[in-house]
Amino acid sequence: MAKMEVKTSLLDNMIGVGDMVLLEPLDEDSFINNLKKRFDHSEVYTYIGSVVISINPYRSLPIYTPEKVEEYRNRNFYELSPHIFALSDEAYRSLRDQDKDQCILITGESGAGKTEASKLVMSYVAAVCGKGAEVNQVKEQLLQSNPVLEAFGNAKTVRNDNSSRFGKYMDIEFDFKGDPLGGVISNYLLEKSRVVKQPRGERNFHIFYQILSGASEDFLCKLKLERDFSRYNYLGLDSAKVNGVDDAANFRTVRNAMQIVGFMDHETQSVFEVVAAVLKLGNIEFKPESRVNGLDESKIKDKNELKEICELTGIDQSVLERAFSFRTVEAKQEKVSTTLNVAQAYYARDALAKNLYSRLFSWLVTRINESIKAQTKVRKKVMGVLDIYGFEIFEDNSFEQFIINYCNEKLQQIFIELTLKEEQEEYIREGIEWTHIEYFNNAIICDLIENNQTGILAMLDEECLRPGTVTDDTFLEKLNQVCATHQHFESRMSKCSRFLNDTSLPHSCFRIQHYAGKVMYQVEGFVDKNNDLLYRDLSQAMWKASHSLIKALFPEGNPAKINLKRPPTAGSQFKASVATLMKNLQTKNPNYIRCIKPNDKKAAHIFNDALVCHQIRYLGLLENVRVRRAGYAFRQAYEPCLERYKMLCKQTWPHWRGLARAGVEVLFNELEIPEEEFSFGRSKIFIRNPRTLFKLEDLRKQRLEDLATLIEKIYRGWKCRTRFLLMKKSQIVIASWYRRYAQQKKYQKIKSSAIIVQSYIRGWKARKLLRELKHQKRCNEAATIIAAYWHGTQARRELRRLKEEARNKHAIAVIWAYWLGYKVRREYRKFFRANAGRKIYEFTLQRLMQKYFLEMKNKMPSLSPIDKNWPARPYLFLDSTHKELKRIFHLWRCKKYRDQFTDQQKLIYEEKLEASELFKDKKALYPASVGQPFQGAYLEISKNPKYKKLKDAVDEKIIIAEVVNKINRANGKATSRIFLLTKNNVLLADQKSGNIKSEVPLGDVTKVSMSSQNDGFFAVHLKEGSGAAGKGDFLLSSDHLIEMATKLYRTTLSQTKQKLNIEISDEFLVQFRQDKVCVKFIQGSQKNGNIPTCKRKNNRLLEVAVP
Ligand SMILES: Nc1ncnc2c1ncn2[C@@H]1O[C@H](COP(=O)(O)OP(=O)(O)O)[C@@H](O)[C@H]1O
Ligand SMILES: [Mg+2]
Questions:
Q1: How many angstroms is it from 122 CA to the middle of ligand 1?
Q2: Quick one: pLDDT at residue 618?
Q3: Lowest-pLDDT range, 157-171, 346-360, 953-967?
Q4: Considering only CA atoms, which of 794, 773, 771, 791 is closest in space to residue 783?
Q5: If exposure means fewest CB atoms within 10 Å of the residue's CB, which of 127, 490, 834, 1048 is most exposed?
Q6: Annotated catalytic residue: which of 49, 108, 182, 390?
Q7: Of 116-120, 259-263, 517-521, where does mean pLDDT reach its minimum?
Q8: Is 113 tagged catalytic?
Q9: In a 3-state reduction of DSSP, which class is residue 1042?
Q10: Which residues have CB atoms below 5 A from the ion given as ligand 2?
Q11: Angle value at C-alpha 215, between 213 and 218, nearest 5 degrees
Q12: Using CA atoms, how far apart are residues 260 and 145, in angstroms rounded to an integer?
């Protein structure tokens, strides 16, 4: 999608006029008023064609934000309100897209904002040019070179708190894409005299104050410095602190910047050591000392400072001390040493300090250049930014001001040349006739200064090189002679001078009428400063330093490279470098920023008309406008012009299909602009008078309003219409939905009503039908019943008739039979009585028997022997048969039952049978034992490890193993014993240990006695005289008495073939050793609950109470 571009113009929302070319009428007053008006509205930039006038606002304006950068990026120069970014953008794009090297010339007097402007240009270019890690590093280094150079090269002056005391020209190099590659900085003439002396109200270079305020105690100590400014003679005290400047913070910024630019730590350290040495040099003081030969000699007052300097710089103290006391002159292989007096010593000291500092500064520039130089050899495009000291007029102007102002003259020169040339070229390019205009050309002033034969600089050099006594006065004399007639030179010395009576001009001065005003120069110091002499002894002393940086700063001190030729003078050096600069600038496309200072107070919002007027005059800005307007005040390419004004003519509005130029022609014809007011160039329209342009602008404004109304009208109509259409559409949608809804509701209502009606009708119909059907059914039933009754009547009648008939027939038959029988009986009576009666009786009996057995067969009870059922007897005469049959059946089923038994079961039943025979109806305990199976081995002797011994002792099969209570014969108390019955023996063993207590062979058991009651006591009687009978019979009690007695009986029987005598009696005798004791059972004692208890009553009686 094509980006919608809003074409704006400088002409939109203008305050005053944005381009002075459009000023009407054009004179100084209107010019200043326009500037003032714009300044008051914070518009600090104004154009003269492509030149930007910048007025220092002395306050930060919100017009340098990243958003502003974006706004001006890639926009045409006249598209937006004047701004330094517009110029930077134009220059950058011209460099990038048209491959033209650029230079940005920033001029103006000190404090007008040149340095700030140069930084703005650089930061803008940095913001819009390529991005990427490498590119960003280059940019950062380029930008960070500024704080370093400013710290060392700027100082507070009365004009400017951050005045550049050196000239700077920086080439920024780009590759073909417009990405920055690096840069080269050239510096021009540092004002080094400031190192040793500053005018009132001014400061030394910032770096001195920054170190003292910002360095850590540690660092200061290393540099042998103290924080107190007043300790140093070289620091002007009256304005050591500058308002709004934080020296300590700036020091950190500088160190950081040095690091970014690429200074190594040791380099930074060395730099600060040199700075410290310079500062301390100022504290060396000399005192006179008279010598024998009458000459004054100087001595260092306090050698402490000297010592510290030597420690810092690694110079031998005696070498430096000597260098401050003697001067060696070499001439024709001869060395002559002369002593220095105090004044000369001070001169030498200051010269050394100045040289040290200025050389350090140059070294810094070289070092920075090393860091920021482009790394490739590919062809580079260059953008030069020139920020050189501005024109200066002080109370006392010396050599430095002379040089600075000369440089400004040169810049003005190049400005004039290039603007004129550019203007002229444009006219020729566009094929418009060029008319010459008058303006002041300052070439004549340049000539006064730089002419090789008669120029002031040439004469100064001549004077310096001349043998014999040379002073500033002889130089002034020479000037007076040579330049007396020059229009721009003023002096009172020459006899025929026009200024003989001008008391404002002292005798030791000369005055030059610079393009920017008259400046009076104090001639004192010109020769010295031009010579820029440093005694060779000093440079040699420096070269001997072990401090590598200081050594490098003084290469001429190397005795091996002694050069007797004088070094070039400061003036000629500067002239040469300015010439190179000019040549360089001429090859580039110039862009001008002319800085103006609105007041002398460094204050915001103050616009001093006189001051501005003065600057406008000497900058030749009015001439600049006039040149620009020569012939034509305004020009614009056809396309933007047509674009801007096409709405003023029907043919070109809204679209012009032909060439832009033709469109503009049609437009201008239509508007009836007088022919002499404009002229058609090749690509531009030239408008002679700003009035015409403003007329066009007014028309455009008017027309725009009309158009706006039209657009608004159409837009409103369109909006209403779309809204209406939308509403209509919506209404239809809503209506249709509503109708549908309503119809749906209605339909549902009808439907439910219909269903109700329908159901009623159906109900009614169904009931009617039901009624009919019921009626019909009743009719049918009635008919059936009637028919049934009728049929019944019929049938019964028939039956009756048939019965009647049958009865009749039967009666007849009976009667017949009876009659027949009667006849037969009468006939056969005599035969029947003899045979038939007995046969009939037998037959009947037989028949009954048969019936009885057959019926019995079906009525047999179950095969269970305990089933007591038996069918009832049917006939009395079969009673005994019936009983017999029952008995036989029972026996049979018992046999059947017995037949199923295994041998084991048989044994059990045999035992049980035995028990029954022995105890049934004899012992009350017996019935309870019937249901209990006989288990025999209640104690599992073999499985219980406790009884292992017992088990080992008994090797026969164990028939009974059970715990019994053995009754103590003495007191009737019971003790637990294990009762074992084997095939041959009865054993009693201890229950806990399993030790056998007694063993009785079965043959020795004679009898077992027990009561008839419900108790488990029994006595085992032993054969008298047998081995076991010694202790007497056993009286025992067991829960399984019946089983034990039975088993004992059976085992004895099978072993001895004798029946064991079992005596059942409630009183029996037991043999205890020698005595016989009677055991008596008494029933009914409830003393101990349900347990029978045994008690010894006396020697002869043991009583057992059985519950
Ligand atoms: N565009 C600006 N916006 C705000 N302040 C400015 C601007 N230009 C200059 N100044 C102020 O004016 C002072 C002097 O400017 P500077 O560029 O150092 O002057 P010059 O280099 O011309 O001597 C700056 O320190 C700054 O305070
Ligand atoms: Mg400056």
A1: 15
A2: 77
A3: 953-967
A4: 791
A5: 834
A6: 390
A7: 517-521
A8: no
A9: helix
A10: 114-115, 164
A11: 130
A12: 9
State the pLDDT confidence band at 5, using cuts at 50, 70 and 90.
very low
- Which among 678, 101, 623 has a CA at the least distance from the CA of 379? 101
pLDDT at 494: 61
**270, 549 contact by CB (below 8 A):** yes
Q: Which of 110, 154, 283, 298 is catalytic?
A: 110
Quick one: angle between helices 303-313 and 265-281, nearest 10? 160
Long-range CB pairs of 197-201 (<8 Å, 24+ gap) are: 197/350, 198/155, 198/236, 199/157, 199/158, 199/394, 199/396, 200/236, 200/238, 201/158, 201/238, 201/239
864 is catalytic: no
Whether a cis peptide bond, with omega within 30° of 0, leads into 199 is no
The label of the residue with tokens 């010295």 reads 528
Give the atom of ligand 1 at the shortest distance from the alpha carbon of 110.
23
Cβ–Cβ under 8 Å, residues 125 and 172: yes
Pairing relation of β-strands 1075-1083 and 1067-1072? antiparallel
**Catalytic site residue 163?**
yes
Q: Which residues line ligand 1 (CB under 6 A)?
A: 56-61, 108, 110-116, 160-164, 390, 595
Instruction: Please report how many Cα atoms fall inside a 13 Å half-sphere around the Cα of residue 20, on the Cβ side.
Output: 32
Strand order across the 684-687 sheet: 634-637, 684-687, 678-680
CB 349 within 8 A of CB 191: no
At 388 the pLDDT is 85
Per-residue confidence at 189, pLDDT binned at 50, 70, 90?
Answer: confident
Pairing state between β 985-990 and 996-1001: antiparallel
Work out the pLDDT band at 436, boundaries 50, 70, 90: low
249 or 677, greater pLDDT: 249
Q: Which residue has the tokens 């119909």?
A: 765
Give the list of residues 6+ apart from residue 829 with CB closer than 8 angstroms, or none: none
- Ligand 2 centre to CA of 392 (Å) is 12
With cut-offs at 50, 70 and 90, classify the pLDDT of residue 620. confident
Question: Quick one: pLDDT band at residue 184, thresholds 50, 70, 90?
Answer: very high
Backbone angles phi, psi at 922, to 5 degrees: -105, -45
At CA 330, angle to CA 326 and CA 334, rounded to 5?
Answer: 110
Q: What amino acid is encoded at 251 in this protein?
A: F
What is the residue whose two structure tokens read 């009693």? 988
Residue 837: active-site member: no
Looking at residue 392, its pLDDT comes to 80
Q: Is 390 part of the annotated catalytic residue set?
A: yes
Q: What is the 3-state secondary structure (H, E, C) of 557-601?
A: HCHHHCCCCCCCCHHHHHHHHHHHHHHHHHCCEEEEEEEECCCCC
Amino acid in position 774: K
- What's the CA gap between 573 and 553, in Å, rounded? 18
Q: What is the pLDDT of residue 1017?
A: 87
For residue 206, the CA-to-ligand 2 centroid distance in Å is 13
Give the mean pLDDT of 402-418. Answer: 87
Is 736 annotated as catalytic? no
Of 58, 63, 594, 601, which is best to mutate to test ligand 1, by the most ligand atoms within 8 angstroms of its C-beta? 58
Residues 171 and 182: their CA atoms lie apart, in Å, by 8
Closest-approaching ligand to the CA atom of 604: 1
Q: Return the pLDDT at 54.
A: 96
Mean pLDDT (the chain) is: 86
pLDDT at 1 over 60: no
For residue 488, how far is its CA from the centre of ligand 2 (angstroms)? Answer: 27
Do residues 947 and 962 make contact, with C-beta atoms less than 8 angstroms apart?
no
Residue 278 to residue 312: CA distance in whole angstroms? 11
Q: How far apart are CA 927 and CA 972, in angstroms?
A: 28
Per DSSP, the residues of 433-473 read ---------THHHHHHHH-TTTSHHHHHHHHHHSSS---HH
CA distance 109 to 160: 10
